[in-house]
Amino acid sequence: MKKIIAYQGEPGANSHIACSDVYPGWETLPCASFEDAFSAITEGRAELGMIPIENSLAGRVADIHHFLPGSGLYIIGEYFLPIHFHLLGVKGAKIEDLRSVYSHVHALGQCRKIIKKYNLKAVTTGDTAGSAREVAEWGDKTRASLAPLLAADIYGLDVLARFVEDEDHNTTRFVVLSREPRAEPRGDGPMITTFVFRVRNVPSALYKALGGFATNGVNMTKLESYMVNGEFAATQFLVDVEGHPQDRNLARALEELQFFSEEVRILGSYPAHSFRQQLGGERS
């Protein structure tokens, strides 16, 4: 029986590519929304999920920060995927024929130069690969899609221009989600620990809460804040730090955090992806 991994998007999307890269041979389950992907994992229709959490150009994927803490799911891995977009049209189309281009809002935002160069009308769709499917179905030579090459293969489109993203460092970080926590032992390699916390509503609470990470020499690679339950005073933080909870310095920092927080919940501790070495690697 094949194992199944869920993702948000249609076949040919970058999330589909990430699934195939990390779990070749697994059956992929496309989902219409992030909520549907989370439900597929929670309900057992998929063993794992491949979910984008941030992009080097577009920033955080906001929906995930709201779904993840309350999902009951755990992060068991991460993957960094270089993002490349290509201008796709129906068979026989030429760039000079184009009048409009369709894609996900993030893809359009990451390919502004070619959109401006050819004076195209940018139209937002729900998914990159979905826009490729729609362009193929319309059969209109004036309409194009910005999508991965896999989408061109799946939907039978011509590649009118390759690698049209504005920046060559365009990269998306994905997290792998599971229903069950994976007690990843402390190995020799670099580790990442992700957790959420809420500060107490007292003066200097955040300063005091984060102080333990500085004094214990723990490198914090991500700190995102957002409101919860519609309350302006209730702020939750999503944090990535280098290290494993079994590390003495991180254990001390987390213990200090408890004194100044209403809730601290570890979402996962997992091996750092090799891409992080290009960013400077884990500090010793």
Kindly describe this structure.
- GO terms for molecular function: prephenate dehydratase activity.
- Pathway: Amino-acid biosynthesis; L-phenylalanine biosynthesis; phenylpyruvate from prephenate: step 1/1.
- Keywords: Amino-acid biosynthesis, Aromatic amino acid biosynthesis, Lyase, Phenylalanine biosynthesis.
- The protein is of the alpha/beta class and 284 residues long.
- The protein has 3 domains: 4-83 and 170-178, D-Maltodextrin-Binding Protein, domain 2; 86-161, 3-Layer(aba) Sandwich (D-Maltodextrin-Binding Protein, domain 2); 191-271, Alpha-Beta Plaits, CATH 3.30.70.
- The chain is built from 9 helices and 15 strands.
- The protein has helices at residues 14-22, 34-42, 62-71, 105-109, 112-117, 128-138, 149-155, 205-215, 248-259, and strands at residues 4-8, 27-31, 48-55, 59-60, 74-82, 86-89, 100-104, 121-125, 143-147, 158-161, 171-178, 191-199, 220-228, 231-242, 261-271.
- Strands 1, 2, 3, 4, 5 and 11 form a 6-stranded mixed sheet that branches. A 5-stranded mixed sheet has the order 8-7-9-6-10. The protein has a 4-stranded antiparallel sheet with strand order 13-14-12-15, with helices on both faces.
- The radius of gyration is 21 Å and the shape is elongated.
